[in-house]
Structures are given as C-alpha cells and as structure tokens.
Amino acid sequence: MAKKSAIAINLEYLALRSFCALVNAIPYRLALWIARAFAVVAVKWFGFKKERTMHRIKSVFPDICEAKACEIAVDSLSNILQSGVEMIRAPKLDRRWMDRYVLDGAYYKDKLQSYVDEGRGVVIMVPHAGNWYMAAWSMAKYGLKLFALAAKQRNPKLDAWMKRQYGDIEVLDRGEKSTLVKIKEKLESGRAFAILPDLRVPVKDVEVDFLGSRANVSHAGAMFAVKCMSPVVVAMMTRKNGRHIFNHLATLRPDPAAVDKKEEARRITREAMTILSKAVMESPGDWFWYNKRWILEPVHKG
Questions:
Q1: What is the per-residue DSSP string for 99-161?
Q2: pTM of the prediction?
C-alpha cells in the first residue's frame, strides 16, 4: 500500500473534521432528513450510479416496475448517507440514545449475552444492510463485550479517527499476522465477535444461493465458530420510521461431531447466506446495492 504524503494526510483529515463539525452542529433528525433529500436528488435528478444500481435491482427482481426499483435505489443510498451521519455522531450515541432509537436493543443484548455465557463466545454475522455498525454500537452500549475487524486506512489520521468512532468495540486490524490467533483466543475466552461476511471474495471459496443467483463468499467467519464451537447468530439491521431494528434471524451451531471442519464451516456459511438472502429480499431498501464489489459478479479463476 503506497504511503500518502504529509500534505495529503493533513488536508484529508482537515476536510473530514470540518465536515464532522458541520454534521454534529445539526440536530440529528434534521441531519437524517438532509441525507435523505440528498439521496433523492442524487438518484432522481443526477442519476448517481443509477444505471448500474437499477440493473442490479432488476436482475434480482426481474418483474419489478421502474418506479419501485428507483425507490429501492433511493432508499439504499439514503441509508448509506444516514449511516455516515451516525458514524460521525457515534461518540454521542450513548445508552439513552440507544433506548430511543434502537428497538428492543436491551432484549437482544441479553439474548446474545446468553450465548456468551455458555463460555465459547459467539460469532455475530451482520451483512451490509441498515446501519450495520449500529448492530455493534448498540450491543456494546448495553454492555456486550464485542470485538471486530477493520481494514487499516491509508491515511493514519483517518485510521485513528475511525477507531475512535468504534467506541466501546475493540477493533483488530484486518490482515495482521497475529489477528487470526487473537480472534480464536478472544472467542475461547467468551467474547462476542461481530463480523461482516465477506460477500465478494476475489477467488473461489464457497458458492451459495443468494438473491436468486449464485455468489462466491468467504467461509472465514464460520470457520472461527467451528474451531471454537461458538454459536453463530445471523442478524440484519433495518431502519423503520427513524428507528433501528436488530433482526435476529437465526442461531446456527457447529456440529461437534463434524470431522471435516472446513466443510462444516462451508455448511454454516451456506445456511447463513440463505437466511440473509431471504431477509434482503423482504427489505431490499436496507441492502447496500452500491457496493463496489458486487456479490453476483463472476469471480476470478484461481
């Protein structure tokens, strides 16, 4: 990864902090409304990535009308921008805020804690839908001991800012040699591991049915669960009427009698993706249709 110059680092950081100050100065509800309005204008007036996004939506919902597909595209972009607002305001999102804006958050924290109390940790799989960060933020604010992975940013000041925004969540650097060992140790000590399933790995891994087609996804998250015999909670965040909903879709458990650990991880991955596919189809506006790495594109051979 090429290093940035000191000037680029400082200018980027200055721009970020200036924008953050502006967003933090605006009342939360108003900031969400502005984000929504921006999404409408970007898609309907300026056609922001509209052709590509509409193609993706129509490939999944072949009988959908143009207006409904456009509505999903707007909802998706709106959700991304609103998630950005919440990322910027994350240090202000305390437990009282969670009580107001995350439906039944304390209930789901207790449910997850019951798995942690079994002593083998828990792997929480949440896809790029709703504000996926909110799944971790809310559970951490209610007292669940969470850790997660994050890729290092090229700008070290932006990287440090991102880690501060995670707040009560312990963040491990993706790609570090010691990270895999740390994940296993933390699960075995009874911690909760929040992970976004890698939905578009560049080389062939596990082929799954997803969104009415075939997708290639990573089995890494499930493999940690298999090695530690940790339950896997499959969940998806959604937005409804200005609130966040932690949808606990299923709990999958590794088979202790499984001889082939890799195949067992693949089985759990397939089951998890089938469950998530159904959830996305039922709430398409919460899904990240703008993802640069589109999950249903063919993978490189290798």
A1: HHHEETHHHHHHHHHHHIIIII-EEEE--SBS-HHHHHHHHHHTT--EEEEEPPPSSHHHHHH
A2: 0.92
